[in-house]
Design brief:
globular, single chain, about 90 residues, alpha+beta, 3-stranded mixed sheet
């Protein structure tokens, strides 16, 4: 199986955008590790399926986006996600 995704780096190198960001949801992959090492001030990731099996799959996206303090694995793993209120919205309902 071949994963197709785009990593766009702006000409100035200040921004990076990952389309189909589910390709980096496994933190052990070279794609996820490489993406997290990209130098950019502004980071975006787009995904239609950011999580399929467990909440832990979100860590790699949060790490790439550098959302503090949860971009550190120790801090992320200490969060009790059962206390979060999860909501889903469709664009047509907003």
């Amino acid at each position: 199986m071949v994963d197709l995704y785009w990593i766009l780096l702006t000409e100035s190198g200040r921004s990076v955008i990952i389309d189909e960001a589910q390709c980096i949801k496994n933190k052990a992959t070279k794609a996820a590790q490489g993406a997290s090492h990209l130098q950019a001030l502004t980071r975006f990731c787009m995904s239609g399926t950011p999580m399929m099996n467990n909440v832990g799959e979100l860590y790699s996206l949060i790490h790439f986006l550098r959302i503090k303090p949860y971009n550190e694995s120790e801090r992320f793993n200490r969060v009790s996600f059962s206390t979060f209120r999860w909501s889903c919205y469709s664009l047509t309902s907003l």
